[in-house]
Specification:
The complex is a heterodimer of chains A (94) and B (185). By secondary structure, chain A is α+β, with helices and mostly antiparallel strands. Chain A has a single domain (2-89), classed as Folate-binding fold (2-Layer Sandwich). In chain A, 17% of the residues lie in helices and 35% in strands. In chain A, strands 3-4-5-6 form a 4-stranded antiparallel sheet. Chain A has a two-stranded antiparallel ribbon with strand order 1-2. Chain B is an alpha+beta fold and 185 residues long. Chain B is globular. Chain B has 4 helices and 11 strands. In chain B, helix 3 crosses helix 4 (170-184). Chain B has helices spanning 42-53, 90-98, 121-128, 170-184, and strands spanning 16-19, 22-26, 30-36, 63-66, 69-75, 78-84, 103-106, 111-117, 141-146, 149-157, 160-166. The chains are: A alpha+beta (94), B alpha+beta (185). The A-B interface holds A 7-9, 11-12, 14-15, 60-64, 82, 84, 94 and B 39, 60-61, 74-76, 78, 130, 142-145, 150.
Chain lengths: 94, 185
């Protein structure tokens, strides 16, 4: 599988480590969230047949975190974004 | 008690191989210092780099060169500075010129640097490096895995590269590169 890195261009998936569902970016505030919210964040994942947003880490490359949108039906990589840009677009400071 | 004198030795013993007109040389004269960008400090760091070494901040996949000092982009907020330096105070000399505009770490002894050159270099690189190295412009860089070892390649000329890899697996890395040359010559 080839991941088209937004800064570096096409790179082999062997250079990356996959973490899983990109919803991990949206961690609730641990000081205010309820136990149920933290439980859902830690344990509940969607398992879609189709487009899936995942966090990938370019460990053997530029050490950037990426949000990769990938089809679980065809393995097609549809979109690749820097995770920090995704987080900033959601209002995070960095 | 006897006086003990320690002498620094290159990791690969100063390897210098000749393979059918190609050459693999260990460069142990180079210092390597990483520079990380403070949050929102890109402009100040770029100015310090220009004033200190007449160097531009390299774009991703590129390196910039001024005299014998090379800056290599390694990640969105980090670069490596590679330059000939004989004494073990490379980080301090870099920080002197940056004056706090970047976070510096001395990485000299963490890496080995191989200089590879010769007519079969592109063929040898194609077989050991998963990046599309023939498409690299001169000065182009990439970090990847070669034979399961993390490595960085910098194209320094039509038929020459600098290869960086961890000093802890330096012997295996040299073996991988040497084997690739022997397979194509």
């Amino acid at each position: 599988m080839i991941i088209d890195h937004p800064l570096l261009g096409p790179r082999d998936a062997a250079e990356f480590v996959v973490l899983g569902d990109a919803s991990l970016i949206d961690r609730p505030d641990g000081m205010t969230a309820t136990v149920e919210e933290m439980h859902d964040y830690a344990y509940l994942r969607d398992n879609p047949a189709g487009d899936h947003r995942e966090l990938w880490y370019h460990e053997q490359g530029d050490r950037s975190w990426l949000v990769v949108t990938r089809s679980t039906l065809t393995h097609e990589v549809i979109k690749v974004e820097l995770a920090r840009n995704v987080a900033r677009a959601q209002g995070r400071s960095r | 008690m006897d006086e003990i004198t320690l002498e620094a030795a290159p990791v690969l013993g100063g390897a210098n191989l000749e393979i059918s007109g190609n050459r693999i040389v260990e460069r142990d004269d180079l210092a390597i210092v990483s520079i990380a960008t403070p949050l929102d400090g890109q402009d100040a760091l770029a100015e310090a780099l220009r004033n200190g070494w007449s160097l531009d901040v390299p774009d991703p996949t590129r390196s910039t060169l001024s005299g014998e000092v090379r800056a290599i982009r390694t990640s969105p907020d980090q670069m490596l500075l590679i330059f000939p330096h004989a004494t073990p105070d490379a980080e301090a000399t870099v920080q002197d010129r940056l004056a706090g505009t970047g976070y510096t770490t001395d990485q000299t002894d963490s890496w080995i640097v191989l200089e590879v050159a010769g007519p079969d270099t592109l063929s040898a690189m194609e077989r050991v490096c998963p990046l599309d190295v023939p498409s690299f412009e001169i000065g182009g860089t990439g970090r990847t895995v070669m034979e399961h070892m993390g490595a960085m390649a910098i194209r320094t000329g039509d038929d020459s590269f600098l290869l960086l890899s961890a000093s802890s697996s330096a012997v295996s890395f040299l073996h991988a590169v040497e084997t690739s040359y022997r397979n194509v010559t």
